[in-house]
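> run fold tripeptidyl-peptidase II
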Amino acid sequence: MVPTLFVLSTLLALAAATPVARDMLVRESRLRPATGFVWTASAPANTTLNLRLALAQSNTATLVDALYNVSTPGHPSYGQHLSKEEVEQLVAPSPQTVNAVTAWLQQAGVTATNATPAGDWLSISVPVSQANDLFDADFAVYTHAESGQQTIRTMRYSVPLSLESHLDLVYPTTSFPSPTLKKAQFTSPFALKHDAGNNSFTAGCVQGGITPACIYDLYNIPANIRATQKSNSLGVSGFIEQFANQGDLQTFLGAFRPDLQGDQFALQTLDGGQNPQQASKAGIEASLDIQYTVGIAAGVPVTFISVGEQNQDGALGGFLDIINFLLSEQNPPQVLTTSYGEDEPDISPALANNLCNAFAQLGARGTSILFSSGDGGVAGSSSQSCSKFVPTFPSGCPFMTSVGATALNVTQQGNQLIGTESAADFSSGGFSNVFAAPSYQASAVQTYLSGLGGANKGRFNAAGRAFPDVSAIGHDLGIVVDGQLQGVDGTSCSAPVFASMVALLNDALAGAGKAPLGFLNPFLYANPGAFFDITTGDNPGCGTKGFPASEGWDPVTGLGTPNFTALKAAAGL
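> ok
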């Protein structure tokens, strides 16, 4: 007979050696890697992961209400933007949330640091083995077959059930980077067939490629306009080591805006960002964005914000960092233009919502946030094989302005050349699968859908936030790169063009003692008559012709292209 004490001690020892099941809740998961990525191997156990934890914000709904109140014409609070401190108070996590998450991390021996001004993001660094244990995850190496880019991700992760209401998401986990991040592309050598100093419509647009003079003509911008208010500013996002060259800017201005020659841009950097000035390092995208903001927003202070690679996840991590960087400033730029984007399916809905809410924070403080819509038509940020239409991110976010593209069609009538805008066939547009349609666009979108009938039924989410909101010329814009004149295409062209006009409007508003436009969309949809309606063209993709442009709003060109004079009148100027 075995002594009872021995049996009891043996059972206790076995119990101590048996892992205790934790109450865990799956926070995010995906069925398969992002398009183009394949599982390669389990991530090495000792590889360090730099992770961010998004804490539950306190008053997101109140923030969104405040955003709409200060951005909707006719509301008593219109133009009364919130201060940095007021926004931070709205989104700061509760003490209970902070204590619960930090106590859990401390118990696991993990030190966290604040990553945002409001304290709603924490940063931690842990080895893969510990990350797998903390989050019941299985981090692995995934390789993008075409580009060879490798990244460490997990198909799912969990958080303790006790933290369900405190911990929104962990990043980067299930969101994948974009190896083919959209940026402007060269078309062909720029065919400059006219006198760049001639501001007439025919000479400025029809007989050659697109220049600032042409854009002024197209959109009714006064030729002699010049900003005077130094409190007004325009920020240009720079990613993936695309650098803006001051020398190329001067060459560009000398050719197309000699009256502005000598104007320069300022520089801000984060995440180890740089902006080397060797001519050979000039980037297509950065050159385009800087040359057309400085060249169109005449006299507006322009800052190039170069985001480096030390952001834990390429451009997507950079999207987070640049917004939080600007939120930390007392006086962020009144306009921020970004010519990059990704496909919505590659990003977790939780991350998309969190970043969208960050846009709401900056918008509530009076900043207009614009992104290009993408260059793959209904196939997303770039052309790809697909059956259902691919929305882009962040264009699906309702708290920013998405900009599509047009091209200039030239026809001859008698002895005269006539130029008219049509939808650019690469202009991405469609409907989000993450964000619902906001009220400000409901009527315009429903009118379009009613006219569309059953076309492409089942390929898109008709209840989703629709984009783009507006458009601008995006084909054959002349830029200077490494001293050479080239033509470029893309919605990357359209975003800085439209942003520059917003900056000029803000200058006039500041001169009249009024607030900047801030979050644009309620104002834009309330004034459809301030746009040139684009009714021809479509955006093919996924084996279809995509969406057709039509009268009124459409998911190719949005409300249309801007009539600066009419927008100025709509703003009360």
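DSSP finds 15 helices and 26 strands in the chain.
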